[in-house]
Amino acid sequence: MTCCGLLTAKKEPVPLKSVEVELQVRDHVATVVSTLNYENKEDKPLEAVFVFPLPGDAAVCHFSATIGQTQIVAEVKEKQQAREEYDDALSSGQQAFLLEESDQSPDIFSLSVGSLPPGESASIRLEYVTELAVQADDGLRFCLPAVLNPRYQPQGSEGASVQVTSVPASLVPYSLSFSARVSSPRPVSKVESNCSLDPLQYLNTEQTQATVKLAAGHKFDRDVEVLIYYKDAHQPTAVVEAGQASAKPGSLMGDPIVMLSLYPEFPQDVMSSLASCGEFVFLLDRSGSMDDHMNNSKRDQTRIGSARDTLLLLLKSLPMGCYFNIYSFGSGYEHIFPKSVEYSQTTMEEALKTVERMGADLGGTEILKPLQHIYSQPCIPNQPRQVFVFTDGEVWNTKEIISLVKKNSGSHRCFSFGIGEGASSALINGLAKEGGGHAQFITGADRMQPKVMQMLRFALQPAVVDISVTWDLPKGVSVTVLSPPITALFQGQRSLVYAQLSGQVGASSEAAEGCVTVKYSLAGHPSQNQLHFSLTPAQDTGLTVHRLAARTLIRSLDMEERESRGEQDGGMKKKVVELSVQSGVSSAFTAFIAVNKGDGEAIQGPLVRRNCIHFSHSFINKFTLQHVLNSCTKLHSNPLLQVVSLQKASGCWELDPALAAALGKTSEEVENTKPASVNQEVWATILALIWLHGFKMDAQEEWELLAMKAASWLRAQNAPCVTECVEAGNALLGCNVQKDALGL
């Protein structure tokens, strides 16, 4: 176990002085340039090891160091060879730098700065490209992690973990500056952040280019999250990027690459009919870190508390006739039922009683075994399996977990939620990507409930099957698709496809066009979407699209290598190394190595090692503690949750004192205003719906599905005098909600 922290055991400061980050966003992808400035204040030569998180799908594509007037640009080499060159350089007194990806998780990198002379400064420039994830509200999310949470490692597993001891954010001894430049074919409507930003500056009258900066005085005490919003966000786009002039024609880097951003639009009549079947399996993290507060403030709800409230909404919103189960995990795992059960009033009540007692008290974060158990259960005929995973993402065996999900991707969809600062983007995005679902991150002041209910809507959408992508290109131009086949499509969800264009692309006329057609079947209806695009390469994209395409191909080959381990002769690993070296993009099997072979004398003196982590909160081995909830606040202190908790599985409410109190009325007021010809359940259900529409429209995403279930129940009753009930309910509650708005 390597002990890392921002201060050494002797309380000596880390030699990192400042971090500068420049973000360049083009449409849906970003190039990030980070400059790390070091200074050795020791009286001896220094080796610093800097461990830091990057987005899980990032492709590191440049690494260089400047010492004094000398700049050294790193090369990509096979990982073991790079390590040996680094060690050789240090033993001969030369300066050297090594950047490598963790074997276990692609969102952790370590940077070794070797033999920095006493009093010397070094500036390290790191560049990576990444896709920006689309959020439920169509915002594109960029996150600069300030936190590398301790990664829980199961006992007896291979690989060295990192034991983290940290310092409070107020003592972080380095500063951060951050600026972003955004450009898109569509106007930029707004840019938001969880941190203070200077006002957005537009660079042209069309508002398709803009810049924004982090306000002065930012303390690196949280992730820097930036959300970018475009007008007409759902328009499909294509970007063609010219090949590298110095690369061989026909190679990945030498040919043009096209990046397609597809947004399928499904027929409205099909989308309005949400599925009334399915097997819903909820998998909840109950490790000790789930007892942390959502926004690092003790005034806020804990992560586990928010998860309990979310499960209440989920359980109330499930359709009658479906099946469900709830698993929770820590060092071990538990499930409420031995196998998934049919959803009814009895099974719902039993599940809710268990959920109310759930605390962050199961120790570590071992997610692999419960997933294995879920996949070992036979699927229920005509009940498509949907798995919802809630975790703060503090695991070490990320790649193993994602491989398991991919192996079982034919039998389920996986929706994943990263809770709190520092949730592993590699884990959360990987679960959803390989499981054909969708990922969401819940940080800062975000409420978990609306994001989760959006995902339940996705899960209730009819499954899209028989997906195919066909290309129509001018004569002499051929295409090689580099992305894995599309396995899942959701209304309003983006799919990115990378493809290599070979042949006479440059010889085509300037007006030459390509066309791509996505065909699929939805609820038995064959459908298709088409996108026509120009083959003329875009200007000023550099090699961003090529590098992301290389990263996509590297990840696919890496996954194949892991799945077929022991069955191959290392040919897949060799392909990954070749592609990584050719494209200059990092992989699990390569590393960036830079050695200063200048004419100066060897650096004299014993080498001092300093370990540091790009990290800010005080997470001192929380994963080894058994957390017990210190206080049990009443679960339903929120008025909305009070009303929701009283709904029956069928969708109706009963007329009782608890409902009257939740609506702010006495039992007598509620009973005396009931129209005589209407039964109590119909009256209670109409009152609850009027209250939701009249007072809780700001949280409509949270209760919309359970309200649809209630309206469906009411329509099935063929109750008389519904109009009279709505009028009486409005008068009682002081609302003005129309009958149509209630779905009646």
UniProtKB/TrEMBL annotation:
Superkingdom as given in the UniProt entry: Eukaryota
Domain VIT: from-to ranges: 1-130
Short name of one Pfam family: VIT
Domain VWFA: start-end pairs: 279-456
Record PANTHER family: VON WILLEBRAND FACTOR A DOMAIN-CONTAINING PROTEIN 5A
Full protein name: VIT domain-containing protein
Organism this protein belongs to: Sparus aurata
This protein's encoding gene: LOC115566878
